[in-house]
Amino acid sequence: MNWIVKRVSMRKLISFIITILLLNPPLTGVTQDEKAAEILDGLSDLMNSAPSVKIDFTFIITDLKDGMTEEIEGNIVMKDNKYRLETMEMVSWFDGSSVYTYMPDVNELMISDNAETEDILSNPVNLFSIYREKFRYRLIGETSQSGKTLYEVDLHPLDLDQAYHTIKLFIEKDKKSLHSAVVAAKDGSRYTLLVDKFDDRHDLPDDFFSFTKDDYPGVEVIDMRW
Questions:
Q1: Which residues pair with 167 in a beta bridge?
Q2: Which residue stretches of 75-181 are H helix?
Q3: Pick from 2, 34, 82, 100: most CB atoms within 10 A?
Q4: Smallest Cα–Cα separation from 182: which of 194, 174, 200, 173?
Q5: Which of 156, 83, 138 is nearest to 114 (CA)?
Q6: Residue 123 burial (CB < 10 Å; 0-12/13-18/19+)?
Q7: For every one of its 226 residues, what pLDDT tens digit does the chain have, with 9 covering 90 and above?
Q8: Distances in Å between the alpha carbon of 33 and those of 139, 178, 179?
Q9: Is residue 47 within 8 Å of 155, Cβ to Cβ?
């Protein structure tokens, strides 16, 4: 995988993770499943009530056409509208206005605006408001995994031009926390997020979510902001 492909892949990784973790119940005029809304309310309240949230995850990309699978481990820390995401291949900061993505293997930093597109798979910044307005959701039922009882909730974008057709969430029944999620893309790819650890005990300072150039001597900066 060359660094350009890797960069695109990482941007999609960020988008999918933020899509799932910043999920809020849609507030549309569309008739919705009330039980699913109650479950999503519980998940949203849990995510938004903590001063900050850290999640260790395993992210699995599966191409159903050729059977290829890639796994990425990492963590994401979120506070208000900020986040910091770290894997072996990248570190990404969103300080509330711009996205800073650092690729250590090429010592390069890419800076972009937070609103260059409304496509939620390419731009995580708009996800919050888009979720509120443009999704239909339904409770599929309950299932069990590793001794845990999980709710299974499907979400479908009202905009049929999106690059995916379904987001499936598995939410722990007793803790109301996210257990896992699967995004089904129209190109035959599946993006699976497994939550390995959830920590909401810390209140991190705002500078934790900002890039500090002095910490990365010699870094090449590509500023794509307008």
A1: 155, 183
A2: 127-133
A3: 100
A4: 194
A5: 83
A6: buried
A7: 444 445 555 566 656 666 666 555 554 555 678 898 888 888 878 877 888 888 898 988 898 888 889 898 988 888 887 889 898 888 989 888 888 999 999 999 999 876 544 444 444 334 434 445 667 889 999 999 889 999 999 988 888 887 889 989 899 999 888 898 888 988 888 988 898 998 888 889 999 999 999 999 999 999 988 7
A8: 7, 19, 21
A9: no
Q: What's the full length of the chain, in residues?
A: 226
Can you spell out the DSSP letters for 153-178? EEEEES-TTSSEEEEEEEEETTT--E
Count CB-CB contacts under 10 A for residue 66: 8
User: pTM of the predicted model, to two decimals?
Assistant: 0.79
For the CA atoms of 123, 203, 110, 104, what is the dihedral angle to 10 degrees? -120
**Two tokens, residue 43:** 């998940």
Q: What is the DSSP letter of 73?
A: E
